């Protein structure tokens, strides 16, 4: 009987050494805390990977080895353990280490004593930093694809809208002038020449976009605002003349912004054509363009005296795709959506103020000075 007891004792000792060696030497983290979250055991693999000594942390709270941003997540997981002690609960926490921040996945479980009372928390974890890095790389690829798709939408819109506007203007010039009259013919060719220059500028800008489609960074350049507006107005002179448009500039010729030229031309064209489309019949179209600089942005202010928009009614959907507000049969609901998309692609923003039957003011914030 004595031999049997000794054999059993030796076997238990042997088993204890075996399981302890698994805990000590395996490549996963094993941590135990008391019910208040204070460390009572940290296995060597955990200490080695985090560059710490077990004796320096025994008795200290476990949140000390978790980045502050993850404290609430850790606490909520522990609360789940107390609320449902029969099951394990999983959480991903980030910890500081000598090689930088590591991401770790943990299984938390309440351990009970012989009386069935909770007496400590067992935490088993492993390093998932490579997986997190791969996920971030995948998300970056998704973001790049989304950015490229947005550019494709903008590119398609610019091609269909901007070039069509130039062509429509040229056709309008030809139709409105008598080419048999020498004076009229000279004026016609002069206007066509100006409109063609605008068309050529559009094509050049689009070519620039095509050349950088594989690059996530949208190319920006210094653009002199008054020069660009003058060129645009020449390219749509028929449309402006038909509604008796006057344009008042409140800034000098040397004012510039840092922007993408193709996007900027598209934004201007949308602002002008929208002002024409939604002018009121009660008065000629008057447009005022001004600029100012704040701490972060150069701001272009475009104000018209048109029909205005009921912002209380339509404000939340103002920049939505295919949203129209005045019942115009030729309205497609793309102009404001494209403006917002393009200026946000350049890290800028747009704000709108409007009064029904008084007019609308657009403030375009261009990032970078």
Oligomeric status of the shown chains? single chain
Instruction: Report the radius of gyration as a whole number of Å.
Output: 34 Å
Structural class: alpha+beta
The proportion of residues forming helix, as a percent range, comes to: 40-55%
Output the CATH class name of the largest domain: Alpha Beta
Poorly predicted sequence stretches spanning 5 or more consecutive residues: 211-215, 325-333
Largest sheet: 5 strands, antiparallel
What does this molecule look like?
This protein has 369 residues and is an alpha+beta fold. The chain folds into 2 domains: 2-127, Beta-Lactamase; 154-367, Heat Shock Protein 90. 47% of the residues lie in helices and 22% in strands. The chain is built from 11 helices and 12 strands. The chain has helices at residues 2-25, 44-50, 54-57, 71-83, 129-176, 182-211, 225-235, 237-242, 261-277, 311-314, 335-345; strands at residues 29-33, 39-42, 89-95, 102-112, 118-127, 221-224, 246-249, 256-259, 286-293, 297-304, 349-355, 359-367. The strands form 3 sheets. Strands 2-1-5-4-3 form a 5-stranded antiparallel sheet, sandwiched between helices. Strands 7-9-10-12-11 form a 5-stranded mixed sheet, with helices on one face. Residues 211-215 and 325-333 have low confidence and may be disordered.
């Amino acid at each position: 009987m004595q031999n049997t007891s000794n054999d059993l004792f030796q076997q238990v000792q042997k088993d204890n050494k075996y399981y302890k060696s698994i805990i000590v030497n395996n490549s996963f983290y094993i941590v135990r805390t008391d019910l208040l979250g204070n460390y009572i055991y940290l296995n060597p693999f955990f200490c080695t990977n985090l560059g710490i000594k077990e004796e320096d942390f025994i008795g200290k709270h476990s949140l000390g080895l978790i980045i502050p941003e993850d404290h609430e997540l850790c606490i909520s997981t522990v609360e789940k353990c107390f609320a449902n002690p029969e099951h394990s609960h999983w959480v991903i926490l980030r910890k500081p280490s000598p090689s930088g921040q590591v991401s770790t996945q943990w299984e938390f479980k309440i351990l009970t004593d012989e009386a069935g009372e909770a007496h400590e928390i067992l935490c088993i974890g492993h390093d998932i930093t490579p997986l997190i890095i791969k996920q971030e790389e995948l998300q970056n690829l998704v973001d790049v694809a989304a950015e490229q798709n947005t550019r494709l939408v903008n590119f398609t819109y610019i091609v269909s809208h901007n070039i069509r506007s130039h062509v429509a203007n040229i056709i309008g010039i030809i139709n409105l002038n008598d080419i048999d009259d020498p004076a009229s013919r000279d004026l016609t060719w002069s206007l066509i020449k100006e409109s063609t220059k605008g068309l050529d500028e559009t094509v050049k800008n689009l070519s620039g976009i095509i050349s950088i489609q594989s690059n996530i960074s949208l190319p920006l350049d210094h653009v002199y605002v008054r020069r660009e507006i003058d060129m645009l107005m020449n390219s749509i002179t028929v449309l402006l003349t038909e509604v008796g448009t006057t344009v008042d500039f409140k800034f000098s010729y040397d004012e510039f912004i840092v922007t993408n030229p193709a996007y900027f031309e598209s934004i201007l064209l949308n602002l002008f054509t929208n002002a024409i489309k939604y002018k009121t019949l009660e008065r000629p179209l008057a447009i005022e363009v001004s600029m100012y600089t704040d701490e972060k942005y150069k701001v272009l202010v475009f104000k018209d005296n048109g029909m205005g928009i009921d912002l209380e009614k339509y404000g939340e959907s103002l920049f939505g795709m295919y949203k129209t507000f005045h019942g115009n049969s030729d309205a497609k609901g793309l102009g404001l959506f494209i403006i917002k998309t393009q200026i946000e692609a350049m890290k800028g923003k747009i704000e709108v103020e409007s009064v029904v039957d008084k007019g609308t003011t657009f403030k375009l914030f261009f990032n970078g000075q």
